[in-house]
Amino acid sequence: MPFRFFLKQWLMPPGVLLLLLLAAWWWRRRRPRLAAACFALGLGGLWLMSLPWVVEHAARALETEPALRVDDWASLASRGDAIVVLGAGRDRGDSAWADADQPSYMALERMRYAAQLAKASGLPVLTSGGLHYGTPPSEAQMMAERLQADFGVQVSWKEQASRTTWENALFSAKLVQPLGIRRVVVVTQAWHMQRARWSFERAGFEVVPAPVGFLGRDHARPFAGLLPESRAMWQSGQLLNEAVGLLGYRLFY
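^ that's the sequence the OP posted. Answer follows.
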């Protein structure tokens, strides 16, 4: 696992772009044309990743599932058997919480949305997410605790073994399909919903997509979003990782 993580960080942007810049410096005297090409690709890639305009338009290619209408939240009771909230990592050792790990910002966004859907529809909730780097508690456990404490929503099931979206679906199926639950309202980021829906449908579920956190909308940035921003760099990395993951899932699962 550590080696795979190390390899992935350097094969995916921005790691591979930094390697191109390093190669440009290394070849600047012996192979100047190749060095110039590496420099242009590395710097150009970093610049594109930093633009909100690029994030907005790239996200639209991944965010193919429309948002649920607020007026339709209550009707989910007739369309689904349960709400499934997918884990999204954790923040380690926050001093404000007595050094306890907390769900990440994206996980909290999903939890907040799932809580509103659960209250409107009355559907039971399943949280899905295993250990992060082997450290307890599981993401599912953390989300269940915060859903109860912060949003007043009791979680009915916790799938605590998964490490990937595919395992979210597979292990959730093993947990609740024997109970007759086949229709699930899946809550995850809008740009992640394609892969989540694909995985859950292949695990035997009928999926009602409930995407949240859309990036492919007009963010009203100055200069049409053509000025670099640090946040856009992180968002671009998420979208690139998702595009590669979506392709990989369809090739290998």
